[in-house]
Amino acid sequence: MSALTHSPAWLALKAHHSVMTTQHLHQLFHDDPSRFEKFSLCFKDILMDFSKQPVTAETVDLLLALAQQQQLQSWIARMFSGDKINATEQRAALHTALRSEQPVYCDGVDVLPDVKRVLKQMERFAISIQSGARRGYSGKIFTDVVNIGIGGSDLGPVMVTEALKPYWVNGIKPHFISNIDGAQLTDTLRHLNPETTLIIIASKTFTTQETLTNAHSARQWFLANGGSEAAIAQHFVAVSTNRTAVTQFGIDPDNMFEFWDWVGGRYSLWSAIGLPIALTTGMDHFYALLAGARGMDRHFATAPLQQNLPVMLGLLGIWQINFYGTASHAVLPYDQSLHRFPAYLQQLEMESNGKRITRDGETADYATGAVVWGEPGTNGQHAFYQLLHQGTQTVSADFLAPCQSQYPVDDHHRMLLANFFAQTEALMTGKTGEEVRAELQKQGLSGPALEQLLPHKIFPGNRPTTSILFKKLDPETLGALIALYEHKVFVQSVIWNINPFDQWGVELGKQLAGKILSELDQTETITSHDASTNGLIQYFKAHR
Ligand code: F6P
User: What does pTM read for this prediction?
Assistant: First the structure.
């Protein structure tokens, strides 16, 4: 057993769970009508209601005791102050510095001047593109921006530009190419005119196979469709920490936007990786996004743990994952604009906390992280909610919605929100056998017909949800929401004693792909792998 699962705070929670597990959420609400007041928190326009989680005041106290035991406050301070808490890579994790207005020191040097310098560079660039001062090789203004990147160099900008569509600058449209599958590149570029297309190659390392391959193909497309070598400098820019590789690729360092190794890929949308956001929505809105995140940073760093939204969101996840054994977590935005938010959180949460070795090098004997997934409501309701309501496993869920729609159309938003409230209520309350029986009798059913149907119509309820409501999905609120989840992930990593800022788990597949790539050109039968992999390679070669 690990030190964590042996620890007093953990054991106290375990004992408390054995009592709580006998209680139905519906009963908890019946016993205490003030649950909403007791178990909801506000930060600016964001309301987080966790009263539909199986918690009592004692649960909260015990979770906070666990946070204290794991020295959460000291870890928060260490992260903000630039300590090298990404120990396996000997790096700080200073994404918060990207939105700071105070000096932040890394290796004794204030990083703020560099951060501000690149923000100014982005601002100048965005203005020059939007105003038409900087144009394509034929003198036409830029109308399309293509971001070529993957993972953190893609998901953040995609998610934010989609979420902030109502803020798009007239006449500039973003496009994203991430997959090495030629389908995405072909489908994106075939609609575009090289004369009016700006291409951003976004890669922290500038070594990622997918991105570099797509970048080379985009270059060929540009040259084959009227562009020239001389015009590349006007149409291609790079965002990276690797100046040498950018130069080797053929991009003038003057057309490079820099960021730093203390920015993790999945935490990088606040850096120059956010260039597509600035180009599409304008730098003012990018600054507002940063301001929203900065507000949440301050809250995370200073609010008492009990009133701290990221802390409580993280601890509720611990309660579900480690004590209730909930292995699946749904993110359900009741806002079509947030349709890529679950995918964004998938990387943020699963790449950060999907680890089995602790900071001390031991194998964790407790779960770290749930499977994160989701789709916007109400589409999900007509697809997978059946399992949430009546399936054999419990899925925890975050429901998110704005009070004001960015797209007010007739009665749509009121209906959307009615569904949000109804679903969280139904998941919590369920429907008992007695209720179903009364309903069926009212419909005129009786005898064997009633008895046969009855069990199918019972809902166990007691399904845990957290509701996050906010006034409107403006850039500032979006920034705060993203930072809320970034810090939630950090809180959980501290409890689990793991490093959320490395990602060694993605390496093995990359290494093997490199070896297999050369084997795909060999004519002889491949025997160097297991029988399945050999067989699959042979089948592919025979049928390509
Ligand atoms: O392979 C995983 C990963 O390293 C992610 O962490 C990262 O966001 C993505 O690849 C892209 O990396 P890069 O920005 O260096 O191309």
Answer: 0.98
